[in-house]
């Protein structure tokens, strides 16, 4: 507790900490605001790096308005940028229920058993999808799944019935699958051709995510080339983003919230690059909340970051002391979301709240295809 108090530097941070002491918990309702629906971006900007960028300076409590490609103005030779290179796979299947022919949507979440072809999925509409039902997908019903368990109100475990090798099965799934856009876009059955490209970072490499690390969607190849020219060290880790990123937090006391576990991989090479830069006095810029969770999950007691292969369900909320990052790039998120809560924790709860109020007045675009913020 004394360590947390020592790290508080602004009046707003002391106020939040005092609130925490009085309540003995941090409340979800502290992170609520009214988001006009028209500010939720339905489409990406024409050019990735020409989204708007709000720049938050924590030290001076001032705000600038720039374009995303101007991010390079805040980075210098020897600084390190860390991003999440997970790749979204086409996890959305459209099919029909046996006998009735009712249209159904199946959102693949996680492969549970490769040999038995068991998958954890979300079905919609879920009300009439029961254990024992068969679901048909593709032309001539080329793929069949049987529901074998209920997991949540919309969750099911299904077994795919497919005669062929694992390679053939995976190829077939991907040929039938669609880009798993979040439901907030309200056009799941009207996915555009550009979504397959734009709902994917340009540096996506390792397939396994069902949601994109959206802060990274703004980076262009031109920006990465300029990083190289300016000796800004680009580093990557992998955290496979799951549907838990879109789940509502259902408890008022944030200490009782549990994030879904997600698989992550952080190499020793990336750890060495980060620690060497910090030892030189260079800045570490973390791209997105998934990357931040991964890095903070790998921090040792000694305050260093070490190689990590496993799972994390780390949930960051105030009061919290960040160990590695000096800068954080993030999008504008929904009220009461884990992403907004993390951004507020990094930037200062009241300062970030004021920035969001300004973003709404200035008509910044929010969420998946929305504009960006960098907190310095």
Quick recap of the structure?
The chain has 376 residues and is an alpha/beta fold.
Q: Quaternary arrangement of the chains shown?
A: single chain
- The figure for the number of domains is 2
Biggest sheet strand line-up: 2-1-17-16-14-3-12-13-15
Low-confidence stretches: 1-7
Approximately what portion of the residues adopt beta-strand conformation? Answer: 25-35%
Can you write the helix and strand succession as a string? HHEEEEEEEEEEHHEHEEHEHEEHHE
Level-1 CATH class name of the largest domain: Alpha Beta
Q: Which class of secondary structure composition applies to the elements?
A: alpha/beta
CATH H-tier superfamily of the largest domain: QueA-like
**Number of helical segments?**
9
Shape: globular
- Beta strands, count: 17
Using the coordinates shown, work out and report the CATH topology of the largest domain: QueA-like
The average pLDDT is 90
The percent range for helix content is: 10-25%
The Rg value, from CA coordinates, equals: 21 Å
> Architecture of the largest domain, according to CATH?
3-Layer(aba) Sandwich
Note the main sheet.
9 strands, mixed
Distance between the termini: 25 Å
């Amino acid at each position: 507790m004394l360590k947390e108090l020592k790290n508080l530097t602004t009046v707003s941070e002391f106020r939040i900490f005092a609130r925490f002491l009085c309540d003995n918990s941090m409340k979800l309702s502290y992170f609520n605001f009214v988001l006009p629906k028209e500010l939720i971006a339905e489409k990406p900007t024409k050019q990735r790096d020409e989204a708007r960028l709000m720049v938050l300076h924590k030290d001076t409590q001032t705000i600038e308005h720039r374009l995303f490609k101007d991010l390079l103005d805040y980075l210098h030779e020897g600084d390190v940028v860390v991003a999440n290179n997970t790749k979204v796979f086409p996890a959305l299947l459209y099919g029909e229920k046996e006998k009735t022919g009712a249209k159904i949507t199946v959102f693949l979440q996680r492969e549970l058993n490769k040999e038995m072809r068991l998958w954890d999925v979300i079905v919609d509409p879920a009300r009439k999808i029961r254990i024992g039902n068969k679901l048909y997908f593709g032309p001539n019903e080329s793929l069949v799944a049987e529901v074998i368990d209920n997991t949540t109100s919309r969750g099911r475990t299904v077994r795919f019935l497919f005669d062929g090798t694992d390679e053939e099965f995976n190829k077939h799934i991907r040929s039938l699958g669609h880009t798993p856009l979040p439901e907030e876009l309200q056009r799941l059955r009207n996915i555009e051709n550009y979504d397959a490209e734009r709902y994917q970072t340009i540096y996506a490499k390792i397939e396994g995510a069902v949601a994109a690390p959206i802060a990274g969607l703004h980076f262009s190849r031109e920006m990465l080339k300029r990083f190289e020219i300016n000796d800004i060290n680009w580093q990557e880790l992998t955290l496979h983003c799951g549907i838990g990123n879109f789940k509502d937090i259902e408890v008022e006391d944030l200490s009782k919230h549990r994030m879904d576990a997600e698989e992550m991989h952080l190499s020793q090479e990336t750890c060495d690059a980060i620690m060497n830069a910090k030892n030189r006095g260079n800045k570490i810029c973390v791209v997105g909340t998934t990357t931040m969770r991964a890095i903070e999950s790998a921090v040792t007691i000694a305050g260093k970051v070490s190689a990590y292969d496993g799972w994390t369900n780390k949930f960051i909320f105030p009061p919290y002391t960040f160990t590695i990052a000096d800068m954080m790039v993030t999008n504008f998120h929904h009220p009461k979301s884990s992403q907004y809560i993390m951004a507020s924790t990094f930037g200062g709860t009241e300062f970030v709240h004021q920035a969001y109020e300004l973003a709404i007045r200035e008509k910044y675009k929010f969420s998946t295809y929305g504009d960006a913020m960098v907190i310095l």
